[in-house]
């Protein structure tokens, strides 16, 4: 079943790395939904290849940069949110999650 016209709000922060970076990049560039929170980690590289050494071991390194739909490189930079929101320790201790609240607000606006 195709998921066309489904509302999407994704929460991101510095813990969002690798495949999460790539997913956030695609959501942003392809206008699939809104990103709420903080910039992602920027820890995503392109495909890797093994290079075999004389002693039988191998070194696996990225051989290209992964680029987003708009041609940007995310590795080392991260993906910025559409709505930047930071939760403080005091908020969380009081049972308040500002990022989740903003995401629910954004979701209700698109409904």
From TrEMBL:
Question: So which residues are the signal peptide here?
Answer: none
Record-linked InterPro entries:
ClpP/crotonase-like_dom_sf, Tail-specific_protease, Tricorn_protease
Its GO biological process annotations read: proteolysis
- All copies of domain Tail specific protease, residue ranges: 5-85
* Record key words, sorted: Cytoplasm, Hydrolase, Protease, Serine protease
Q: What is its main location?
A: cytoplasm
Q: Provide the GO MF annotations for this entry.
A: serine-type peptidase activity
Domain of life of the source: Bacteria
Q: Where in the cell is it found?
A: Cytoplasm
Name the GO cellular-component terms.
Answer: cytoplasm
Q: In which family does this protein belong, per the annotation?
A: Belongs to the peptidase S41B family.
> What is the protein's name according to its record?
Tail specific protease domain-containing protein
Provide the species name: Ktedonospora formicarum
